[in-house]
Amino acid sequence: MKTFKIGGIHPEENKLASSKAIEMLEIPQKVCIPVTQHLGTPSTLVVEKGAFVKVGQLIAKSDAFICANVHSSVSGKVSKIETVTDTSGYKKTSVIIDVEGDEWESSIDRSSVVKKEIILSKEEIVAKIKDMGIVGLGGATFPTHVKLMVPQGKKAEVLIINGVECEPYLTSDHRVMLEKGAEMLVGITILMKGLGVEKAMIGIENNKSDAIQYLQSIASDFKGIEVHALKVKYPQGAEKQLIKALINREVPAGKLPIEVGCVVSNAGTAFAVYEAIQKNKPLFERVVTITGKSVKNPSNFMVRIGTSVNELIEKAGGLPEDTGKIISGGPMMGKALNSLETPVVKGTSGILIMTKKESKRVEIQNCIRCGKCITVCPMGLEPYLLAQVAENTNYEAAEKERIMDCIECGSCHYKCPSGRPLLDYLRIGKNKVGQNIRNRANN
To answer: What burial letters (b/e) apply to 284-319, b meaning 16+ CB within 10 Å?
Structure first.
């Protein structure tokens, strides 16, 4: 069965909510919507305190190339504009809205009828995806319209759709593929047209056999779309690993997938593209998994952007007594939250509540040079060495040893018998080396 060749691990899956259908979470009384929920330049506010906004109304505008529009997820009055810490741990300018009713922009088609006919041109598709604020929902939140704008001299040959969802516990993409499969395939067709390619490949790990079978059964109605079962192996959902698994091409160090003729998009993103183009619906809600071994009711909710994490936890049965950590994302690449009032954003794929036993790190021991971190690294790096030079602030050596190629999957950290915080040091090192590279480019 198809997979990538170098490294990888097999953590316990814990897909506790995989059989739970998507539920609509109640509209909260208040939302907190950060105006920057994407990779790139911050968006510019276009509303003021005291303004009344509708569901789907633009509240922050994209004014740069790599940037994305932000829309209101509720109707009501803007009560505050203040700085709030989001799920990434960074402080962001945010719009606080007190909810009044549920009044949507009249241009949004709220019917459940699946619209297959695509009437927009390639250029119109790209422009509308930008207008609707669509970003990658797999975690990176890169503006989708930018991916469709192939640089001069490059050629796109295939669109790859990431339905892998290899992070333990997370099941939001799985449920989208099962419940919104037809809409997702229309969205993929739209992305193909916007990109100018005739072929799309959907990669799904074999632990989601129901999604594979369902999508294969309906894909015959859509020209050029193939569904491929992949071996269960983490981190197969990473772009470079998925490309290697599906088309056996290797993206060069420091380069993007377009270098090998492909563009990668997430399954949830394809559904958001369908809603944007066919229903005129901006990205103001998404499916979020709320899960954990002690959670009473692990679930998949359709959540309005800006809803507090606490609302999801309460709906899933409340905060367990043995809670040790609350993670935004999965256990491998997610980040711990320091407040239950942290808002759900476009990149929030899941909220994981870990028990005290699970979340307690083992005592850190000296590195024994066992080489296990090297064996499991999917990028062929030497994590023990990179962590060591980053810890000693030798960022020149870190750059030389290719720290920027690290995809922060956490495989090394997971496998280390000495409990060394390898991923922590790698993230710190990458951040500093990235700053140094940008500084050199600007001088």
So the answer is: bbbbbbbbbbbbeebbbbebbbbbbbbbbbebbeeb
By the 8 A CB rule, do 351 and 303 touch? no
CATH superfamily of this structure's domain 122-279: NADH-ubiquinone oxidoreductase 51kDa subunit (3.40.50.11540)
Q: CA-to-CA distance for 230 and 242, rounded, in angstroms? A: 9
Could you tell me the two tokens for 287?
Answer: 């499916």
The pLDDT score that the predictor gives to residue 443 is 77
23 Cβ contact list (under 8 Å, min separation 6): 299, 300, 301, 302
User: Which two three-digit tokens encode residue 107?
Assistant: 């241009």
CB 41 within 8 A of CB 143: no
Q: How far apart are CA 332 and CA 115, in angstroms?
A: 37
Query: How large is the angle between the packed helices 383-391 and 422-442, nearest 10 degrees?
Result: 70
Cα torsion for 126, 87, 32, 85, to the nearest 10°?
-120
Beta carbons within 8 Å of 3's beta carbon, 6+ residues apart: 230, 231, 233, 236, 245
> Which residues lie across from 162 on neighbouring strands?
203, 266
- Whole-number mean pLDDT of the chain? 95
Domain ranges of the chain: 122-279, 372-442
- List, for residues 7-38, the tens digit of each pLDDT value: 999 999 999 999 999 999 999 999 999 998 99
Reported residue count of the chain is 443
Summarised one tens digit per residue, pLDDT across range 113-165 is 999 999 999 999 999 999 999 999 987 899 999 999 999 999 999 999 999 99
Give the tens place of pLDDT for each residue, 262-274. Answer: 999 999 999 999 9
Instruction: For residue 137, give every residue at least 6 positions away whose Cβ sits within 8 Å of its Cβ, in sequence order, or none.
Output: 266, 268, 269, 272, 286, 346, 347, 349
| Calpha distance 32→428 (Å, rounded) | 29
Question: Which position has the higher pLDDT, 86 or 24?
Answer: 24
Residue 409, pLDDT score: 96
